[in-house]
Amino acid sequence: MFERFTRDARAVVTQAETEARELGSPTIEAEHLLLALTNLDHATAAGEALAATGLDHDRITDALDAQRDRSLLAVGISIGDFDLPKPAPAARPRMAASARSALEHSLRIALVRADKRIDTGHILLAVLRAEAGTVPRALAESGVDKQELNDRTAAALDARR
Predict the structure, then answer these.
(1) In this structure, are residues 154 and 160 in contact, taking their beta carbons and an 8 Å threshold?
(2) What is the chain's mean pLDDT, rounded?
(3) Residues 6+ apart with CB under 8 A from 131
(4) From CA 3, how far away is CA 151, in angstroms rounded?
(5) 148-151 contacts: CB < 8 A, separation 24 or more?
(6) Each residue of 113-155: pLDDT tens digit?
(7) Mind listing the pLDDT tens digit for each residue in 62-87?
(8) What residue spans of the chain are helical by DSSP H?
(9) Are 156 and 82 in contact (CB under 8 A)?
(10) For the residues of 11-32, what is the DSSP string, one character each?
């Protein structure tokens, strides 16, 4: 599958591993792919769509943090009540189900669109497909219109055909 990825799409997967490692996560999750996508040049399909909706690395990080805090509060835990150390970087995070699923969906999206290569936009469309989990909750927290982001990404991909 990775042989169909463009150079930029491969860079997203590599950057997602870096994001996970720096956050101390033992696994690469879909949210790490989303964070990696925000590091792209605006010349890519995903970078263009994310910039147009105002999503950048800081905004996603803040939304992920707020979503985590809200989830913990739902079970009666306030992260501020603990003096937790900063997570140590993980040695080599492995691909988790959410990221693996997003990458597999990016291939399916490219096939349905009859695109020969898997681009950053395909990865973003696949990440946006999730209806439950951390990414949809974080996007809602950030105030992003998921459908608008989806439409902008598809349009950016169409413009690159």
Answers:
(1) no
(2) 93
(3) none
(4) 26
(5) 148/53, 149/49, 149/50, 149/53, 149/55, 149/124, 150/125
(6) 999 999 999 999 999 999 999 999 999 999 999 999 999 999 9
(7) 999 999 999 888 999 888 888 878 77
(8) 7-22, 30-37, 45-52, 57-74, 97-112, 120-129, 134-142, 146-159
(9) no
(10) HHHHHHHHHHHHTT-SEE-HHH
Look at the pTM and tell me if it is higher than 0.85: yes
Domains and CATH numbers, the chain: 2-81+89-159 (1.10.1780.10)
Contact 72, 79 (CB under 8 A): yes
The Cα 3–Cα 142 span in angstroms is: 33
Q: What is the end-to-end Cα distance of the chain in Å, rounded?
A: 20
Across the chain, which distance is largest between two alpha carbons, in Å?
A: 52
